[in-house]
Amino acid sequence: MTALVTLPVLLPLLAAALSLMLTRFATIQRLLGLIVLLLIVLDAAWLLQVVDSEGPVVVQLGGHAAPFGITMIADRLAALLLLVSAVVTLSVLLFSIGQRITDYGRDTSSTAFHPMYLVLCSGVSLAYVSGDLFNLFVAFEIMLAASYVLITRRTTASRIRAGMTYVIVSLAASLLFITMIALVYAATGTVNLADLADKMGALPDGIQLGLSLLMLVVFGIKAAMVPLHFWLPDSYPTAPAPITAVFAGLLTKVGVYAMIRTQTLVFDHMESWTVLLVLGSLTMIVGALGAIAQDDINRLLSFLLVSHIGFMLFGLALFNELGMTGAILYVVHHIIVQASLFLACGLVTRHTGTVSVNGMSGVAKAYPLIAVLFALPALSLAGIPPFSGFIAKIALFQAGVQEATPIAYVATGAAILTSLLTLYAVGRVWVVSFWGEPSTPHPDPDPTDELIVGTRVTSRSMTTATGGLVAAGLLIIFVAGPLSGISERAATDLLDPSSYREVVLGDSAIAGGGE
Amino acid sequence: MPLLLAAVLLGVAVGFAPGTTAEQYLPWMPTLDVGFALRLDGLSLLFSLLVLVIGAGVLAYSARYLGTSGNHGSFYLLMTAFAAAMLLLVLADNLVVLFVAWEATTLCSFFLIARSGPKAREPAIRTLLVTAAGGLSLLAALAVIVVGTGTTGLSEALASPIWQESAGFSIAVAALLAGAAFTKSAQFPFQSWLPDSMVAITPVSAYLHAAAMVKAGIYLLLRFSPVLAGETVWMVLLISAGLTTALFGAIAALRRTDLKELLAYSTMSQLGLLVAMIGIGTPAALTTAVVHTVAHALFKSALFMLIGVIDKRAGTRDIRELAGLRLRMPVTATVLGLAAASMAGIPLLLGFVSKELMFAAFLETPGPGWVPVLVTALGAATAVLTFAYSGRIVLGAFSGRNGNTVREASAPFYSVPALGAIAGLAPGIAPFVLDGLVSDAASATAGEAVQAELVLWHGLNPALAISAVVLSVGTMLVLARRRVDTVLAPVRFPFSGLAIVDALRSVVVRFGATVGELAGSRAPRYHLAVPMICVSAIALIAVFTVDSLPPIVGSPAEPLDWTLVALVLVGVVAAVRAQTRIAAIVVIGVVGFAMTLWYFVLGAADVALTQLLVEILTVCVMVLLLRRLPARFGKQPLRNRIPAGIIAIGAGLATAAGVWALTGRREMSEAASFFVREGETATGGSNIVNTILVDFRAMDTLGELTVLGVAGIAVAALLHSRHPTAVRSAHLDRGTPLADARANSVFVRTTTRLLGPVIVALSLLLLLRGHYEPGGGFIAALIGGAGFTLLYLAAPTDSAARVRWPYLTLIGAGIVISAGTGYLGYLEGSFLTPLHVEILGIKLTSALLFDIGVYSSVIGIVLAAFNLLGRRHRILHDDDQPPASKEVSYR
């Protein structure tokens, strides 16, 4: 059973290494990736079922009891996100393969893409199941290192420079992360998350506050929390569509996940956290405002991405069960929807040859299927019922009102305003770009750039992948019952981490711990 | 299809005992208490009938209106979807489902307006914005209700005692609900979208903007009347907004020449009356509201459809243009007159019945004495104006006496509106036929049993007197309509709602553009400033909140430490001040070597060795890069350097404060003492650093060696797709001895030949003994890497260097070996558990295998650096070439 936890990390890693050694065999490379990610989807689904019925699954690596070795643990939240992420990574890989075959032919293999993509998947999985702060850092490093390659490969010099913004900011975040770990270890003598939960309580309040704020900043950079978001709209749009899709869908969410995990497990937040409420509201508003004036569709979506991170922060900041449920639902919804939007946009720009909203028109008439694939997630993002975004929003709004403090009301108001601005932003894209008479495609400005546009060629697997992801988003409507059930149980686990500590440290450690 | 549904529903209604309700429940999100709960009571029944009957009528009419040519599939689909949404809205017994339906009607209306052509886009967007804002107001209201009452069930929520107990709660809900209803029903100040949306085709206007969607707001208000009627905020909001809209809508209607626009303003005005009546909230007023809803739905949809008929036949619907045409449409004219008469409130029509009731209700408005007077006066004024514009419609449409003759439309075309108009006649003469339906609806609305007795003749009472006045003044206005036109011409709406929406929108967009521009810089200093400022801010917060720190354990600082700190500091300052890149690298090297020394002083031999080797290799690789970069750093102006300096120093001080406050204040950690005490028994290795690397925290090592490998691939990917900037050529005089590379490298080559085998042996030795003595895969590989560095440096030319190994395969193999070893651990219980085997008396452990993986990867990355950066490479894989024959086909 414990293999269920390690496989999502190790399988893609092994596959990445094999893929690196098999660069001469294009088909094998492709199949390897697809099979591995499919296996992870199955693994995660099984794991979720197991975890939901029997409680968290713990692996003490090397058989060393916590806190001496490294702990991997899958609880409901981790298993749920593993599953959702695996669905997204699988779809995006299918899309990429379709795109690569269309553009380079069936026999072209890749040194960088397949191995790095799998390494990225491995890092994401490790971040979810890691029960150790330093190991979490390693997970981030794996994920980020692979993302550096993916964002800078096969692109123009000016895009590489934009990619460097991403690399530099991420490295700075890593530097802060490792500094934070050093300080945490210096203060508490442990990096095991469950153990930290015990030891942190013994420190003076001010130190606890400082460390928790430092963690907020570290993960806030990754999650693009305002005012740490500036890098995101500058760098994400420079990557090819499938890469942006997986970055936007997953990487920011891993930051949010780490934030949720550390703030609930390690620190004692008895009531709603004003700082985070304010930052969450700012994130929502600033992102949405930034989005409405953009002309580059990818940049517009990137701002919306920032904006909607605010919803998750809002849910987390409330530190009550409903808020946490809402945050989890929102993460699940947003991973899928944001990724599908970027994929759909990729399809659109391939046909229109431009990323400029004003530069294209009549997409709905010329490519009705693609228009539908864009419209459904866009409506969901705007929180239009009965799509997934709406389901997540109900819980958040209820939570905000339930909290009944002035700042919670303000945050709820900000959430409502953001929904409206989002609707306006995607509505404008729809009206300007999708309606009207089809425009002639712009020619591809630079054929060596993988942001290939205006080729008019999409393969069936690209549309299938996008369609599959959109369908996954729609599926949320129908499984809303069980999904909100799991999310609520996951939220309960988060707010009362005693069972998490118990399974990691054993009962005795809890009894002796300084709770 | 709606016809069928309506029939079924009617069947249900017939066998429906008064006052009972039917319920249906399907769970959706049980944990969030959301399910498809449907409930049919009097109010729902009445609205369902309206939605279905009028929907069926409009669809039948559309078939004629649109004709058989063209593709109208999406129209019928959207109309049917709209009807379904509306039906769900009035039947929902769950607040969330109610909201879902509400938003669905908004969306359908957006698409229905938008599909009417390019000029419909702006109105569609504006309509969407206004109604979606209202939707969010509704959502907020529902959230408040759900939290307050603890249920999402509509009828349960309405039954909660909180409405009476908490004034604040009721006020909040009342204000939010009113906001939602006002946007949907086009009430002041959200009225602007309704006339705007008239760009939609006539059937859409007839259904959505006369009979159905705008009634959603009315339904919502009626639905919550049982708990909110009598609430002061509710009354004030509804009555004032309702009457304002009623009056101004009527005035505006009188000024229009486009008949459809006139009807739009008239709809606003009539809805205003309805809202005001609901605001009054007495059972009589609510009953009136119900009756008037029915009356309005009938005559307004009929009017819209008739104007559509005229428009289709005459090719215009503007009064001024119609005056130049001779309309010979007797049936249409009669029916139009009938419907307009109902709107004007002329006896024998349902409009009269409802207007009579309305005045009676207005007169009984609760509150101080002047309120009923004012309300009735405004209501009467509106009624007069209504009469006037009703007359204007009929007379305006058929006033032309000369010009081209327009003939009557075919019977199926006008039959549907005719039915609607006649349907207003029957209950007008015998209003009691509606008694049952209205009583049920009014009972549901008033929260108490209401027995409506609709009669034509109420006897001589104030309401009748007012009606008489209204009729006579109205007739005068119609007769003197030219004069009225000139008087009203300069009158304008206090402010144009459209202008406000547009102004608001452009302000927000401009602000958004500014916000968007805040990002958009590629200079790293902007991106790095915020996180670093955050670090300083956190330190400041901590300084002010921390009152006491744990005592320092032992005496952690030795004098030598301070010397090393000084050394590091010198290195840092020198690096910041360095003008050339090479100088910067050298002084950063100083910092690195100072750190190495520090590790040695502390007794961490392995860490120190690693640090040393990494330092050496880093310098070698960096020098390879330096060849391609400008020698000097670009000059930064002082205004950039000063803030950057302040931020950097702040962050540095903050980190230093953190280190001071947190380190050295506890005993050795649990984990550390465990490693020291039990490390060897647990792992079989005596080198703690190595056992941590390959055993206790092997997963971290596996991860980090992946990161290293990825770095190698990153270089490969970058360099293979783009040619790097050229190497700066040294200006070397060919005549000097320095120019001959082969001769110059003799010494190094000889040294290498001697040292090479030693280095390889040392590297392998360190790998093997790593578990027990200083060494291990990482250090061993770095030493091996140093060997390759020597080979590279000793070679006379870049291409002659014997470093051409398959580095990517080495990296991949390293990861496979390490990860694979991890899985071997399952033989013994858990992932990454090391296995110990004794072969021929030699103790072997799988940790060694793991270390070999590390070794392979690290060697791979060192080789990658020299191969990729140190040599002129050719593009290796197909993927990394620009696609040779990409299909580009433009039509």
Automatic annotation (TrEMBL), chain A:
InterPro entries the UniProt entry points to: CPA3_Na-H_Antiporter_D, NADH_UbQ_OxRdtase, ND/Mrp_TM
Main location: membrane
Membrane topology: Multi-pass membrane protein
NADH:quinone oxidoreductase/Mrp antiporter transmembrane domain residues: 130-417
Keyword entries, A-Z: Cell membrane, Membrane, Transmembrane, Transmembrane helix
Compartments (UniProt record): Cell membrane; Membrane
Designated name of the protein: Multisubunit sodium/proton antiporter MrpD subunit
From TrEMBL, chain B:
Domain of life: Bacteria
Ranges annotated as spanning the membrane: 46-63, 75-92, 98-115, 127-147, 167-186, 198-222, 234-255, 262-283, 289-310, 331-350, 370-390, 411-434, 454-479, 528-547, 559-576, 583-602, 608-630, 642-662, 701-719, 754-772, 778-795, 807-827, 847-869
Compartments where found: Cell membrane; Membrane
Tagged with keyword Lipoprotein: no
Keyword Transmembrane helix recorded: yes
Domain Na+/H+ antiporter MnhB subunit-related protein as annotated: residue spans: 748-863
Residue ranges constituting the MrpA C-terminal/MbhD domain according to the UniProt record: 566-630
Residue span, MrpA C-terminal/MbhE domain: 645-725
Membrane topology, as annotated: Multi-pass membrane protein
GO cellular component, one term: plasma membrane
GO terms under biological process: monoatomic ion transport
Pfam family, one: Proton_antipo_M
Domain NADH-Ubiquinone oxidoreductase (complex I) chain 5 N-terminal intervals: 29-72
Molecular function GO labels: antiporter activity
Key words of the record: Antiport, Cell membrane, Ion transport, Membrane, Transmembrane, Transmembrane helix, Transport
Residue ranges of domain NADH:quinone oxidoreductase/Mrp antiporter transmembrane in the record: 92-365
Classification via PANTHER family: NA(+)/H(+) ANTIPORTER SUBUNIT, NA(+)_H(+) ANTIPORTER SUBUNIT A
Cited NCBIfam families: PRK12650.1
Listed name of the protein: Multisubunit sodium/proton antiporter MrpA subunit /multisubunit sodium/proton antiporter MrpB subunit
